[in-house]
Every structure is written in structure tokens, then in C-alpha cells.
């Protein structure tokens, strides 16, 4: 049941990324805002590259964090949403309201400092089991405030239809960090770099990024060996019929497909997309991936769709359900989904390693 809810949440997250959230980033510790935070959280969720421009996704926040000290003794930084924040010199308690942020926090070895998290993070390895859990878009603010964490981590999804819901916590001394959903693998790296600096785990973060880069390079090096005539054209389905949902370029999932030596049939379009069945029939992909694991049998559902029997992927039964979490959460764990897809598409190249 948790996996079903997580999968549905991932689809909602993607829809929000496509449409954009709507809110103002909180003004941490009364710092001046950076570049119009009265709309930045909304803009950075639109997959148009704003997240990179707004803050740390160009790597600068991770590099400069901690350079300036304010009167409260903490380091002044700019978070990935573009908001000025003041991070405490020592972080002893963290609340995360995003499964992707929970994954990064635990990978940084700070799971034991988490005093609360969102309900979709319940299966993230390394989190404590006996702490309060919260809805992402409508958390219990009284309970959340009572935890008084040093740091609260949120994404632009948390701001949906709300305006500065955490300002009271900021005023009480909590550092609220907004990390909008990144639209690229480089964006994922920059978010990890920023969070490791903000949370005082730069050394662990550097090691995590080094491992991430090594795995990406290994996959890319193998992809480079695949002849052009053997490269597959794929369709990746995030939500099934009748309301099919996928993506084009400008989405980290598209990069994942390209970096393993394949081509997304929708790469000519941009961002998250609603899809018509006729489009997929016309594009005739060699393989189809789905991560809609909340459907009883997502592979069979695709194989039995009316009008799709002539698609090469369907006729050859090259339809696969892959790990929903690894393929949807923008973290270092995307390499797990990349390797899974690579081994399914090109077993002679990837499984030989």
C-alpha cells in the first residue's frame, strides 16, 4: 500500500513540476530576498531551467556556503529556490518533507538527526521509525512547529497553493531550506553539493558525489560502445491509460535514457507531457518502460492496449516495469534505474561487465 501511495505521489509531483507550484519562499531570519522570492518557488518547479539560475544549482551555493557569518552565528547562504537563508553552525535536528530529500539526508549519514518526515519517506532506509510523519502539501503545522527542528527541508511541491506557510517557524529560529525539483542530473548533483554544505556534511557529500560520478561514467562509457544501428528508441510511461503521462527533453529522466545509449521518442518536445496513444503508435518505439507500479499488472495493461499491437515494443514484448522510486526521485539513486533500463535494453553490453 505504501508503494502505491508513493507511486501516486510521484505522479502528482511530476504534474506539479509541469504546472509549477505557487508560493513565496520564507524570508529566513529576516534576510533580504534574492531576486524576487515572491514567485521563485513557483518558477523553479516549471522545468524551464530556473532552478539552476535561482541558487545553488550552478554549484555556487555549495562553494560559498559558510563564507559569511551573521550576527546569529550561522552561515548565510542562498538556497536552490533563490532564498537567502542562515544555516546553524551545528545541525542536530532535521525534518524532511520530501522522499528525495530524505534519501539525500540519509546518504549523508544524518538519518539519526531526523526528528520527523513526510509519509512517503517511510520506506527510506536509514530513517528512524518512531518519529512523527507529515503530509507534504498540508502538514500538521502545530505538530511540526512543536518539533522546533534546526533545519526543515522542503521542495516546491510543499508550497502548492500556499504562501509562506513556514514563516512562523523561520521567525522562531528554524532554518527552512527549499530545494525545488531539479530538471537535470547536474541539478541533482548541485542539490547534493548544496545540502552537504548546508548540513555540515561536505566531506561525506564529496564522497557521495564521487561515487555518483563514477557510476554515471561507467554507464556512459559502456553506452559509447553501442553502435548507432543497435541503439533503441524508447517510450517511458509515468502514468497509464487513459491519462497517459510522460516527458520530453529538459527532464532528468530524459537524460537518464540518453546516457545509457537510448533515445526517448518524445525528446523533440519539452518538459512533462500528457500523451495521446496515437502518438506512441506513430513513433513506434523499440521498447517501453513504465514505473506505474500501482497498476495491478502495468506491463500486461500496455501489451493489451487497443490499437497498440503493431508497435514494435508490444509485438516483441519489450515492455518493462522498472523501479518507481529510483526512476522518479531526483537523487543519486537514479543510477539504479539507469542500470536496470540499460541491462534490459542492451544485455550483451551491460550485463557482461
Determine Rg (CA atoms, Å). Answer: 20 Å
Low-confidence stretches: 1-5, 15-24, 29-72
Q: Give helix and strand order, one letter per element, not per position.
A: HHHHEEEEHEEHEHEHHEEHEEHEHHEHHH
| Beta-strand fraction estimate | 5-15%
Q: Give the strand line-up of the largest sheet.
A: 6-5-4-7-8
* Main pleated-sheet profile: 5 strands, parallel
Fraction of residues in helix: 25-40%
Overall mean confidence score, pLDDT = 84
Shape call: globular
The end-to-end distance, rounded to whole angstroms, is 35 Å
Tally of alpha and pi helices = 16
Broad structural category:
alpha/beta
Strand element count: 14
Structure overview:
This protein has 353 residues and is an alpha/beta fold. The chain has 16 helices and 14 strands. It has helices spanning 2-19, 40-43, 50-54, 60-64, 99-107, 141-147, 167-171, 185-198, 202-223, 252-259, 277-283, 298-303, 312-315, 324-328, 334-345, 347-350, and strands at 68-69, 75-78, 84-87, 94-96, 114-118, 133-134, 151-154, 175-178, 233-237, 245-247, 263-264, 272-274, 287-290, 319-321. A hairpin with a 5-residue loop joins strand 2 (75-78) and strand 3 (84-87).
